[in-house]
């Protein structure tokens, strides 16, 4: 028996997009809350297989952008092309079925459930047996449950969280909760993984772990990742391309080195008046 | 075939109890298991693969990682080819690792994962001989240069391909194993070494087998037993119990999922044979105490009542001494309500035999576990003896001594008070260090243990201290620092103590608080603190420590030999002694001289009468960065009691 | 002394002296308790999945019972009227989700609570408009519920159990069991619990809010119908029935708003205790009619000692 045969079984699903092609494109999106403009006419794309960062100072509209992408918000103008389909609005659960998974800045987990159950919940998208079988809870549904459990165990092994498998997540320290949340998103086997400040509130060691996981997910599983991050240093190391937002507008877009030397970006981060 | 090597036992067990489990490992949330027959096949294919890769008879091969089936198999595979496995501490820093690998002249290393590969490669130029690394877990190694890097499964596949090509190869391998000599070196264990570089202790196969056989018979271990393998592979205790005794008795070795899951894995496995250093038992008791402090009053009442019953009758029942019927009934009820569930939670329900060693264990702590019906005993040993020097018999157990000599072991005390032994498992010498070997051997063939001790009236050995640490105060009084430290450490609030006094006027002590216990106490008493340093320096904590020191002095005053060793001044250290800072060894023993040097200003403060002292200390964080912390440490005086005269004690008694 | 005796000793002496009567009292308490538990479950389900305290639970009982009886009055056979009523309750759930809940997503809890008051008023109006305001009789026999009674003679005494009560207890028990299995074992049930735990997390694993809301309101409708039939069979069908929904309030105080088990045990406990109190303490000492207030007082006293209720999570304020 090969104890570690299962490594890398969970991979990004085949979504018909060749690596390097556009997986998602945001086209001229604007979002307003009443009279307040959160996002103004933003366009950018995410290529399959890359780590794409969206950065910007506080209130730049980063989280709003993610919320538009995964269907929490409907933009007033503009469209989103995902896997070749163009649309303006999408309900969150449709976004999930289309292969978009995400994590949240403040961690959204089922606090009363164990780590295992939380990650299992991520598998629910892939559970196909009908209500009848679920009610009876035998046969095919049970077999399906076991298959899902195997995938979940791989994720637990990957994220090195075996010791908290049965712990209710509400009792875990913040850094570990973030890891569980990443696990749940991975369990969905997404085409596109959205991470909202994955390293917020972490200590240095936790940040290093998290960076390692993100890079490994991207390289070993080929998952496309779009992440928001406040910490410039981390972003520049991790990502292939960076979009910079400021006051809801796009002010730069390119590889980290370009962005770093862009005067507008420097001004935005240093808080120079507009 | 005479069973005088472990590979021979592998073949014999695969014949005798081939369908019984030899090894389990929790992986992906499930306990995977391998029978003895399967284990033989795993070992065989790996051995043949290793030979194809060029491993030769007499060569050494490093084994680095945590307790994993494949790392145990790699040892047997190496032995089956006449090569010598050298288990190395997995958490050793890269320099230490490089020293050992270099000294042992290994060309091969079987490692657990990327971390070990990285460590070895970072020192590649210092260990030019080591050209072949075989890893268990592939994770993270995908993009590594494959030159000299192999997967464990790939090597096995190579072996299997050879078997498939030529059926007779498997049989020939078995024949070679059967024909092998018990005079070969079985394993080389590097001692962690409280002083100087670690030394490679060579153990001969037939000696190792004989030592293990004696103790397997002593405790009646057999193939129905099971043990959790959670202590470092490179430590003699793990190699002795999980490897040597495992092979000889045929019991099942269970490898935990990870270091963090040991407690849960223990519960799931419910081993019958268990070893843990006193520290682990201490942590178990602390966690039980904390849980009971948070429980409802009714549960607490029930718990306290039945723990009282257990203290009264538990050990007597365990040892088969007479107990009144009412006591037996109360104990049986307690077993149903408290001891049973408690042992179950701790994973100790099925224990038949368990040992503790390495440090002195507190009387309270020791009898707590025994009173629950856990057959906990003490042993004393060292790498040079292949573990056992003394061990306690069932029913003849005490906390302050470590037992009579193990079967076929001779011990005696030298004129200087040092314990000497001669045993069947005795080592064959230190690798490439004949002069060191000569230093520890006496002319009549005994091994110097380096420990000072004496033999009690009932034949049990009692250890006072390291022989070289025992010194004298300026007044000529005996000074055994470890003894004082151990008395202090029996208080759950004191995690570590370091005593000074050799050549001085009196004894001064550094104390380390136990963050868990003291932190809990602080929480209950609404004492706010932001850091370890702040808590350690808190006036109330000082009061608590002063009380402990005072009680310690009273206790010392009670024993005629020890009365001169009372503590006169003490301080509470502002930082936890840490292996990463070199203050503790990897087995978490205090490195006294290092601590003394590092905290020289504080020692001065102990002896120059000052009330406080400001010091700055360098610390290493977990990620390897260094930083400095500054603190003002208070020094306090303690009361010294007059010695209780022996005749006065008799009169009182 | 006399007084203490009448509180502390006499009631228990009475219980022991007439064990058959005690059994009868316990049975009556159990029947009421099962109903309380059922209604409390309706509240708990909706609260768990959407943080809404559903003020309309009571009127839904009336509305369901009225619809059932009304349909029968209009010539629909009783056994067909039940599924038709269920259909009506389903449409009601659908309408509530579409018209009330969906537009109010992300509004403060209190707004949603007010909305359920609105639903209550609307249903009162609608019920009166369609079925009229006069009292009606539950179609117990037509539904095939036996109306006789069993008698036992334990301890040489006499206990009578009405068959419709027995049916109610068994029926409600089965309904509760089915609900528990559904909640714990099915995907939908787990989705309901997930939503109760964390909204955002539930959405992000692909749970559809609308579907779950329709589902829980429909379940609340099913419970309302069951309660309506049972209670209607004992007390007739009228708008006064709405009041029994408020019997669930002390049960919720005891059991906690989020605990399914708490609702069940709390309901049974209150049903039995209030009956015992009424018979052995209330009637001889207080002139009876204690059932109207006993449950509230009892719940308040329990809360004094256990602020989180009997089954609530221990409330720990992190400093």
The CATH topology of the largest domain in chain A turns out to be Rossmann fold
Structural class determined from secondary elements of chain C:
mainly alpha
Query: How far is the first residue's CA from the last residue's CA of chain A?
Result: 64 Å
Please give the share of residues in helix of chain C.
over 70%
Topology order of chain A in helix (H) and strand (E) letters = EEEHEEHEHHHHEHEHEEHH
Cα distance spanning the termini of chain C: 49 Å
Number of helices of chain C: 12
Shape of chain C: globular
User: What is the makeup of the main sheet of chain A?
Assistant: 6 strands, mixed
The beta-strand count of chain A equals: 10
Give me the number of helical elements of chain A.
10
Task: Kindly report the name of the CATH homologous superfamily of the largest domain in chain A.
Answer: P-loop containing nucleotide triphosphate hydrolases
Beta-strand percentage range of chain A: 15-25%
Give the strand line-up of the largest sheet of chain A: 6-7-8-3-9-10
Question: What is the H-and-E element order of chain C?
Answer: HHHHHEEHHHHHHH
The assembly state of the depicted protein chains is heterotrimer
Using a beta-carbon cutoff below 8 angstroms, give the protein chain pair with the largest interface and the number of residues from each chain: A-C, 30 and 24 residues
Task: Please write out the topology.
The complex is a heterotrimer of chains A (274), B (653) and C (319).
Chain A: E1 22-33, E2 36-47, E3 51-55, H1 62-69, E4 77-82, E5 85-87, H2 92-98, E6 100-102, H3 115-123, H4 131-136, H5 140-158, H6 174-187, E7 192-196, H7 204-221, E8 224-228, H8 232-238, E9 241-246, E10 249-254, H9 256-261, H10 263-270
Parallel strand pairs in A: 3-8, 3-9, 6-7, 7-8
Antiparallel strand pairs in A: 1-2, 1-4, 4-5, 9-10
Chain B: H1 6-16, E1 21-27, E2 30-35, H2 36-53, E3 60-64, H3 69-80, E4 84-88, H4 94-103, E5 108-111, H5 114-122, E6 132-135, E7 149-151, H6 152-165, H7 168-179, E8 185-190, E9 200-204, H8 205-219, E10 226-228, H9 236-249, E11 252-255, H10 262-269, E12 273-275, H11 278-294, H12 297-318, H13 325-346, E13 353-356, H14 363-371, E14 376-382, E15 387-391, E16 410-413, E17 418-422, E18 429-430, H15 434-440, E19 447-455, E20 461-466, E21 471-472, E22 478-479, H16 481-489, E23 494-500, E24 507-513, H17 515-524, H18 532-536, H19 539-558, E25 567-572, H20 592-598, H21 600-608, E26 612-620, E27 626-637, H22 646-652
Parallel strand pairs in B: 1-11, 3-4, 3-5, 5-6, 6-7, 10-11, 12-13, 13-14, 24-25
Antiparallel strand pairs in B: 1-2, 8-9, 9-18, 14-15, 16-17, 17-19, 19-20, 21-22, 23-24, 25-27, 26-27
Chain C: H1 2-17, H2 19-50, H3 57-73, H4 78-101, H5 109-131, E1 149-152, E2 159-162, H6 163-185, H7 187-197, H8 199-204, H9 209-235, H10 248-255, H11 260-286, H12 294-305
Antiparallel strand pairs in C: 1-2
């Amino acid at each position: 028996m090969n104890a570690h045969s299962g490594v890398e079984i969970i991979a990004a699903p085949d979504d018909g997009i060749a690596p390097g092609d556009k997986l998602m494109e945001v086209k001229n999106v604007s979002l307003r809350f009443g009279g307040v403009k959160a996002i103004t006419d933003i366009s950018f794309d995410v290529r399959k297989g890359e780590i794409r960062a969206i950065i910007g100072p506080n209130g730049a509209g980063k989280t709003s952008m993610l919320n538009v992408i995964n269907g929490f918000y409907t933009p007033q103008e503009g469209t989103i092309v995902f896997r070749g389909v163009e649309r303006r609005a999408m309900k969150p659960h449709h976004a999930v079925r289309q292969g978009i998974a995400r994590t949240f800045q403040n961690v959204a987990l089922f606090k009363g459930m164990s780590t295992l159950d939380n990650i299992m919940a991520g598998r629910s998208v892939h559970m196909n047996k009908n209500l009848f079988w679920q009610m009876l809870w035998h046969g095919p549904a049970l077999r399906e449950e076991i298959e899902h459990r195997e995938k979940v165990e791989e994720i637990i092994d990957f994220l090195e969280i075996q010791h908290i498998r049965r712990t209710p997540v509400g009792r875990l320290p913040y850094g570990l909760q973030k890891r569980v949340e990443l696990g749940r998103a991975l369990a969905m086997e997404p085409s596109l993984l959205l991470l909202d400040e994955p390293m917020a509130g972490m200590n240095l060691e936790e940040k290093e772990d998290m960076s390692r996981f993100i890079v490994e997910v991207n390289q070993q599983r080929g998952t496309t990742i779009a992440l928001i991050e406040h910490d410039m240093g981390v972003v520049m190391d991790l990502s292939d391309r960076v979009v910079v937002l400021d006051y809801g507008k796009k002010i730069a877009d390119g590889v980290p080195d370009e962005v770093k030397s862009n005067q507008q970006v420097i001004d935005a981060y240093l808080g120079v008046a507009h | 075939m005479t069973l005088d090597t472990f590979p021979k036992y592998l073949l014999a067990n695969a014949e005798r109890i081939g369908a019984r489990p030899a090894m389990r490992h929790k992986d992906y949330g499930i306990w995977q298991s391998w029978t003895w027959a399967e284990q033989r096949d795993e070992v065989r294919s790996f051995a043949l693969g290793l030979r194809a890769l060029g491993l030769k008879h007499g060569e050494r091969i490093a084994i680095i990682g945590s307790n994993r089936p494949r790392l145990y198999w790699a040892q047997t595979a190496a032995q089956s080819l006449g090569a010598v496995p050298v288990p190395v501490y997995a958490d050793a820093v890269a320099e230490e690792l490089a020293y050992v690998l270099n000294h042992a002249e290994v060309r091969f290393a079987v490692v657990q994962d990327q971390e070990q590969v990285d460590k070895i490669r970072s020192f590649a130029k210092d260990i030019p001989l080591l050209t072949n690394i075989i890893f268990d877990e592939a994770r993270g190694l995908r993009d590594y240069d494959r030159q000299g890097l192999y997967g464990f499964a790939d090597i096995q596949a190579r072996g299997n391909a050879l078997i498939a090509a030529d059926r007779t190869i498997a049989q020939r391998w078995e024949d070679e194993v059967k024909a092998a000599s018990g005079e070969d070196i079985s394993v080389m264990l590097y001692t962690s070494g409280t002083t100087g570089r670690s030394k490679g202790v060579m153990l001969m196969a037939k000696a190792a087998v004989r030592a293990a056989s004696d103790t397997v018979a002593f405790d009646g271990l057999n193939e129905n037993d099971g043990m959790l393998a959670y202590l470092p592979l490179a430590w003699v205790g793990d190699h002795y119990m999980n490897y040597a005794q495992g092979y000889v008795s045929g019991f099942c070795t269970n490898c935990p999922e990870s270091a963090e899951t040991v407690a849960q894995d223990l519960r799931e496995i419910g081993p019958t044979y268990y070893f843990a250093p006193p520290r682990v038992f201490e942590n178990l008791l602390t966690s039980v105490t904390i849980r009971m402090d948070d429980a409802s009053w009714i549960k607490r009442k029930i718990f306290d009542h039945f723990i009282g019953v257990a203290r009264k009758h538990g050990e007597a029942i365990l040892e088969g001494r007479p107990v009144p019927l009412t006591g037996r009934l109360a104990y049986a009820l307690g077993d149903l309500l408290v001891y049973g569930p408690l042992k179950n939670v701790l994973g100790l329900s099925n224990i038949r035999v368990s040992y503790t060693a390495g440090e002195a264990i507190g009387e309270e702590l020791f009898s707590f576990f025994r009173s629950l019906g856990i057959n906990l005993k003490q042993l004393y040993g060292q790498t040079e003896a292949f573990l056992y020097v003394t061990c306690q018999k069932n029913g003849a157990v005490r906390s302050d001594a470590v037992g009579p000599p193990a079967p076929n072991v001779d011990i005696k005390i030298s004129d200087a008070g040092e314990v000497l032994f001669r045993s069947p498992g005795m080592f064959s010498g230190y690798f490439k260090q004949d002069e060191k070997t000569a230093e520890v051997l006496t002319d009549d063939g005994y091994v110097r243990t380096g420990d000072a001790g004496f033999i009690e009236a009932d034949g049990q050995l009692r250890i006072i201290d390291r022989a070289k640490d025992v010194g004298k105060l300026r007044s000529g009084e005996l000074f055994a620092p470890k003894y004082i430290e151990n008395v202090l450490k029996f208080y759950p609030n004191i995690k570590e103590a370091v005593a000074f006094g050799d050549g001085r006027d009196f004894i001064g002590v550094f104390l380390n608080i136990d963050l868990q216990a003291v932190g809990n106490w602080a929480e209950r008493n609404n004492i706010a603190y932001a850091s370890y340093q702040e808590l350690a320096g808190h006036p109330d904590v000082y009061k608590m420590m002063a009380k402990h020191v005072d009680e310690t002095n009273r206790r010392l005053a009670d024993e005629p030999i020890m009365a001169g060793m009372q503590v006169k001044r003490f301080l509470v250290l502002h930082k936890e002694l840490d292996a990463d800072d070199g203050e503790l060894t990897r087995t978490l023993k205090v490195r006294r001289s290092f601590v003394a040097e590092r905290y020289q200003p504080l020692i001065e403060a102990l002896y120059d009468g000052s009330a406080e002292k400001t010091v700055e200390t360098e610390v290493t964080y977990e990620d390897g960065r260094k930083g400095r912390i500054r603190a003002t440490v208070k020094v306090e005086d303690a009361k010294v009691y007059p010695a209780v005269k022996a005749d006065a004690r008799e009169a009182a008694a | 002394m006399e007084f203490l005796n009448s509180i502390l000793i006499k009631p228990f002496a009475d219980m022991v002296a007439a064990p058959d009567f005690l059994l009868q009292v316990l049975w009556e308490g159990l029947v009421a308790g099962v109903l309380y538990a059922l209604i409390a479950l309706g509240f708990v389900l909706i609260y768990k999945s959407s943080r809404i305290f559903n003020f309309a639970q009571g009127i839904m009982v009336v509305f369901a019972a009225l619809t059932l009886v009304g349909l029968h009055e209009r010539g629909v056979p009783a056994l067909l009227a039940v599924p038709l009523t269920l259909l009506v309750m389903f449409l009601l759930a659908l309408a509530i989700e579409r018209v009330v809940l969906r537009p109010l997503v992300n509004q403060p809890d209190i707004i949603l609570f007010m909305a359920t008051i609105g639903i209550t008023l609307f249903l009162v109006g609608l019920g009166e408009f369609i079925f009229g305001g006069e009292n009606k009789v539950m179609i117990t026999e037509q539904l095939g519920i036996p109306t006789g009674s069993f008698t036992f003679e334990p301890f040489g005494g006499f206990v009578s159990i009405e068959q419709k009560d027995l049916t109610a207890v068994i029926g409600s028990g089965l309904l509760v069991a089915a609900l528990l299995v559904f909640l714990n074992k099915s995907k939908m049930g787990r989705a309901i619990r997930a939503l109760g735990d964390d909204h955002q997390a539930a959405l992000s694993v692909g749970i559809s809010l609308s579907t779950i809301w329709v589902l829980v309101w429909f379940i609340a409708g099913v419970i309302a119908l069951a309660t309506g039939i049972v209670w209607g069979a004992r007390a007739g069908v009228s708008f006064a029935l709405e009041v029994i929904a408020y019997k669930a309030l002390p049960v919720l105080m005891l059991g906690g708003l989020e605990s399914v088990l708490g609702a069940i045990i709390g309901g049974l406990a209150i049903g039995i205790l209030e009956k015992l109190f009424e018979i052995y303490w209330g009637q001889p000492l207080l002139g009876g009619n204690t059932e109207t207030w006993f449950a509230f007082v009892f719940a308040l006293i329990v809360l004094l000692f256990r602020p989180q209720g009997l089954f609530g999570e221990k409330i720990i304020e992190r400093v």
